[in-house]
Amino acid sequence: MKAGGYSTLERHQHVHKVLIGRGAGHCLVDDQVYEVKQFDFIEIPPMAWHQFRATTLEPLGFFCMVKCDRDRPLLPTEEDLKQMRATPVIATFIRI
To answer: What is the pTM of this model?
Structure first.
């Protein structure tokens, strides 16, 4: 994604493993925001909300590793967003 960009805020039933291929930024996993950089490996548990942001001046590239048999992502409802925004660090981080 381009510098300053972000991925879709989503969750799904399958485990999601992500390898940062280039750049740096932050990611939301469930109720925590983490710094990420090239070669970091992130495991996203089933049904955990997650989103990646390129927060530096360079693009952020990553590889998503999932089973070939997987479910479709679920997007947040207004109620989901309300609950997430009740946590200040998440409210500041998420983009829709």
So the answer is: 0.89
